[in-house]
């Protein structure tokens, strides 16, 4: 068996993660991951399967009206899901299939728990709002996973256009911050990186929201990513917090958390739109606008 230390596990965490994971899950998940790494031969894929089983158990508990038990099982399922990545990075045993299994397992868990919760409460009360909430949870979760890759493609296309029309030999602020995350954008003014000009495609966004960069650095120092309401926080709200509060909280918490999730997703779209506006138009495009 391995002789890993807690520091080894902590080093295997993601550089930045959701605040729910950092503060509410990792303190326990890291210590359990240390036990698994040192005293068992359990693989990351096995942990992913155990996480899926925990998700099914949570859905079954929700279906039967055991909301508190369902919330605890969902939390444990997510915690095990966090452990598999840490052990994969720690031991170097991650596989491409493991990435697929982890992704699909997360989606299956959300769908099962959403409809277990919605249908279970509907059968007990006859209130269709619970079913509508379940559908809303699934739709928002799918939208988030569709929106993310598409925004990534738009960012890549925007960078390619910027290099072609502004300065082919340049580096972008986001790339610099990726290697120096605690650096404030203002400190990069008039700097060069490896002899290349630094271009800020988020210049207009930073001008409109000057407080954002200080907020980003504040979060980075605590290993928290800036997407404060991501899918993880959304799932925690509807599958852990709301069931613990009771059935009365399921619909309002879903509406509130869903609204925040959409707001943050739209803020990402807004930032990409502002970045695209900064790229100068080519002459043919200017002529089209004038016509």
UniProtKB/TrEMBL annotation:
GO biological process: phospholipid biosynthetic process
Positions of transmembrane segments: 50-76, 224-242, 248-270
Coiled coil: none
InterPro entries in the cross-refs: CDP-OH_P_trans, CDP-OH_PTrfase_TM_dom, CDP_ALCOHOL_P_TRANSF_CS
Domain of life: Bacteria
UniProt keyword annotations, A-Z: Membrane, Transferase, Transmembrane, Transmembrane helix
GO cellular component terms, semicolon-separated: membrane
GO molecular function: phosphotransferase activity, for other substituted phosphate groups
Family: Belongs to the CDP-alcohol phosphatidyltransferase class-I family.
Protein name (database record): CDP-alcohol phosphatidyltransferase-like enzyme
Species assigned in the record: Sphaerimonospora thailandensis
């Amino acid at each position: 068996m391995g002789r890993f230390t807690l520091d080894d596990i902590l080093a295997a965490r993601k550089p930045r993660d959701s605040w729910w994971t950092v503060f509410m899950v990792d303190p326990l998940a890291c210590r359990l991951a240390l036990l698994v790494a040192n005293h068992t031969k359990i693989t990351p894929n096995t942990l992913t399967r155990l996480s899926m089983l925990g998700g099914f158990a949570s859905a079954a508990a929700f279906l039967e009206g055991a909301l508190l038990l369902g919330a605890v099982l969902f939390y444990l399922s997510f915690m095990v899901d966090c452990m598999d990545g840490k052990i994969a990075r720690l031991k170097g045993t991650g596989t491409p299939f493991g990435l697929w299994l982890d992704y699909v397992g997360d989606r299956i868990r959300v769908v099962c728990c959403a409809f277990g919760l919605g249908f279970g409460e509907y059968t007990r009360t006859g209130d269709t709002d619970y079913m509508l909430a379940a559908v809303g949870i699934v739709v928002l979760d799918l939208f988030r996973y569709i929106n993310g890759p598409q925004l990534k493609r738009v960012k890549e296309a925007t960078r390619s256009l910027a290099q072609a029309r502004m300065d082919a030999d340049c580096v972008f602020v986001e790339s610099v911050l990726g290697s120096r995350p605690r650096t404030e954008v203002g400190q990069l003014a008039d700097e060069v990186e490896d002899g290349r000009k630094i271009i800020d495609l988020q210049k207009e966004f930073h001008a409109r929201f000057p407080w954002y960069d200080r907020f980003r650095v504040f979060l980075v120092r605590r290993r928290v990513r800036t997407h404060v309401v991501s899918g993880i926080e959304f799932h925690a709200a509807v599958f852990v917090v709301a069931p613990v509060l009771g059935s009365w909280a399921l619909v309002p918490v879903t509406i509130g958390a869903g609204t925040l999730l959409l707001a943050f997703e739209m803020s990402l779209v807004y930032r990409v739109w502002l970045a695209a506006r900064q790229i100068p138009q080519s002459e043919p495009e200017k002529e089209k606008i004038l016509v």
